Structure formats: C-alpha cells, structure tokens
Protein: Limonene-1,2-epoxide hydrolase
Amino acid sequence: MTDQASHPPAPAPSAASVAVSDNADIVQSFLFALADSDLDTFESLAAPDLLWQNVGLPSLRGRVRIMKLLRRSEGRMGFAVKFHSIAAEGETVLTERTDAIVFGPLRLQFWVCGRFEVHDGQITLWRDYFDLVDCLVKAPLRALAATVFPSLRPTF
Structure:
C-alpha cells in the first residue's frame, strides 16, 4: 500500500520544457519521415535555409536544394534510423542513433551523433558526426558479406 501524502503530484511542465520536448519530437518526426519516404512531411519540418552538414563531407544549404537531392534518390536508396538517446535543451537537440542507408540488398549501417537546431517548429541545422572509416569502409564490407551470408545482415 502506498502513502499518497508522501508523494506529492509532480508539477505541471513549464512552457519551456514542453517546447524542448516538442523540439525532440520534431527531430524524430523529421528522420522518421525520411525513413518512411514521406518527403512531404520531411520538407514541412525543414526550414527554407536548412543547413545539412555531414562533418567531413561537403555541406548542403537550402530546403529546395536538399529536397531536389532526396527526390532524385527516391526509389534508388532507402534510409532507416534507430534512436539510442535524444537530449534537448532550448533550440538544440542532440541524438545518438544508428542510421542505415539501403541500396537494394546492401544495407550500410553505422553509428551517428547528430545536432539539430529547431526554430519555430522547423529544423534550421542538421549536423551529423560519424566515423568515415566505419561509414565508407566497414559498413560496405559488412553489407557485401551479408549478401553472401544473409545471417550477417545488420538489423536494428
């Protein structure tokens, strides 16, 4: 039996904490929309001046330019994401996740840390950090081995 008097009700969340939670939800919705090939939702969550940075690779600026690239790759490659942790403070959202880029039978899966900036319900910065060797060497080798030995195919 629990004594209700010893556990006062939690205070109602402040407007600031709700906004932080909303920002984390926006980031998850953004990446899940990409994984679901829901480019309309993805586009609606991207700010017109979105900056997409994959650290170590060239950056892309502008929703129109990014959407053009994503629409060109539609049907040729897939994307999957698994969030391990997500933290938000103010307009900044940090993620630890595993991403997978899928080309037909090849599934390139690798760990990613991301930083997102969310302003007025739209993402203005999408910056991902990952190990280039893991992404460009190890993941393709694992994916190729999995085409010969399907039991090696990476999954979440």
In short: The domain at 14-152 is CATH 3.10.450.50 (Nuclear Transport Factor 2; Chain: A,). The two ends are 40 Å apart (CA to CA).
